[in-house]
Amino acid sequence: MSQLPEQSAGPSVPTSADVARLAGVSRATVSYVLNDNTTVRISDATRRRVREAAFDLGYVPHAAARSLRAGHSRMVLLPAAQQLPGPLHQRFFTDLQTDLRRLDYTVVQYGSVGLDADEAVRAWAELRPVAVVAPGGVHLTPHRTGVLTRSGAKAVITLGPQPVEGAHALVLDQREVGASAARHLLSRGRRSIGVLMPQDPGLAVFAGPRLAGVLRAVETSGAAARAEPLPLAYEEEPAARLAARWRTLGLDAVIAYDDEYAMLLMRALQDAGVGIPEETAVVGAGDLMLGRLLRPRLTSVRMELAAAQPPAELIDRLIRHPGGPRERHDLLRARTVVRESG
Amino acid sequence: MSQLPEQSAGPSVPTSADVARLAGVSRATVSYVLNDNTTVRISDATRRRVREAAFDLGYVPHAAARSLRAGHSRMVLLPAAQQLPGPLHQRFFTDLQTDLRRLDYTVVQYGSVGLDADEAVRAWAELRPVAVVAPGGVHLTPHRTGVLTRSGAKAVITLGPQPVEGAHALVLDQREVGASAARHLLSRGRRSIGVLMPQDPGLAVFAGPRLAGVLRAVETSGAAARAEPLPLAYEEEPAARLAARWRTLGLDAVIAYDDEYAMLLMRALQDAGVGIPEETAVVGAGDLMLGRLLRPRLTSVRMELAAAQPPAELIDRLIRHPGGPRERHDLLRARTVVRESG
């Protein structure tokens, strides 16, 4: 550690009275100007003077005090991004944040890393958000949803693979990802499909439904086909072991959890001399750039999030009409982009 | 959209008085029990009764009201994870959150997507955090740091490539990443080094210092060597164009921005018949699994975050002693992991 020049010890917190004094106006005028209240006639010169005084003093209103006065907050709590990884979710959250801000909400992200579900929900409730979007991984029971609504949340919305009783649901139905890949492989005449299952416990909530989607697609196809789960850790050594016994498995296709798992397995299969796609077709998911850089180029399930109404407007509507029926919106669209690997 | 069974309209918010009534104790007792105040003698049976009543009613204390009463909050504001991408930062933030919670802080993440720096700082100040860890990308001027400290923040800490005047600094000095790669290449006799510069504006804050590190390493090496920046968008087409004119550039080595850019360029160079590493050595950064899956295996700069004191303890100390000198802590360690590509 090195020391930089002195930081001044905590100065006194400026108040709206300080702003009023500096600008030479009443506290009520300060409040009208800084809250953008346009029903009161205040000259532009005065508004400018108040804003400059607030800026010079570094005065900002206190969100908590304001929400206590108003009896409700404008805070929307979103799950921290790492709980729903991937570029797809990141873009979704970026857009959602921008749109909610445009609707004048304060967007706060809250991680539940290291907390159990009850602790996480209590921590959320303590912040008195007007709405909570909770990841599918935290199991919102009806009781926990009740804790949030009784603490003042007008809308509790889950975002994840399955809806949860008592809450609105933005559903990313992962079964469609597996089903799309399986339908493609079946249409190409593949009949024995392995499904890579990642061993990261955080991914089980996605991987389980994807496998279910594959199994259902195989069942309903009418073809004499089968699918089986293949556990695989994201490491070179287990991938090499799986590749070494690949021909004993009798599979002619494999659906990887995502493009990175597909790359891991393809490398191991190629190193073991297994022909792709001649002997085994490989399908990834996520349609990342890296799949296009592989040889053969990777066939992959592309996912998109689409909604009839932009999610921010939906959340705003649910907040403003809290008594309505619970809603379910399916956001995930999946289609297989066919390249060379299968 | 489909409709699920009815959600009950906003029930009344339970108060500590409701909990006191149900548990048959005073409001003071409720407050002592739920705030874990152990200086007051209350029987275990009573504590249990209060906790059960609070659970049954779904009562949670109001963080804002509590911080207003106490005159300060326990809220530490962290930047939303997407502003510092990559597994390295994610692990750092996960550990930091867990450790801060253990020290009884409320950790809230705040995205500044779509906000300018002044708006972001005001939004942070409105939440009255006791500490703010701000990403390097948002330029905290001394004025903006002042807005935060005057709103009650005891510690303002930047996390990024450079320190900022007026704030404590956790510095991730990216120059060391470039310098490590360049020193390795120079030691292998490479003398003309291209440095891939990503065109994503969000990465400029990392890419610029990395290039500076390369240039300094070349200058101080004493070798008759040179380095030059090569702009490259993360797309196949521009990579192919760059590869097509590669031999006219007279380079014998290239430092990619990260392993993914290295993969993009390696594929394009190999498709153009450029030998790796014979004609051109390639070094990535990040030491991701995918680099080990490439052929030749990718040489890459591994980054680690290390601190003499765990960052959560450091932040806690800065909060408890707000008048001290500003501190700078360098967290980033970089070393080149040599494989086959250069």
TrEMBL record, chains A, B:
Domain of life: Bacteria
Name the UniProt record assigns to this protein: LacI family transcriptional regulator
A Pfam family per the record: Peripla_BP_3
SUPFAM superfamilies associated with the record: lambda repressor-like DNA-binding domains (SSF47413), Periplasmic binding protein-like I (SSF53822)
InterPro entries the record matches: HTH_LacI, LacI/GalR-like_sensor, Lambda_DNA-bd_dom_sf, Peripla_BP_I
Domain HTH lacI-type residue range list: 14-70
PROSITE patterns tied to this protein: HTH_LACI_2
Keywords for the protein's UniProt record, in alphabetical order: DNA-binding, Transcription, Transcription regulation
Gene Ontology molecular function: any one: transcription cis-regulatory region binding
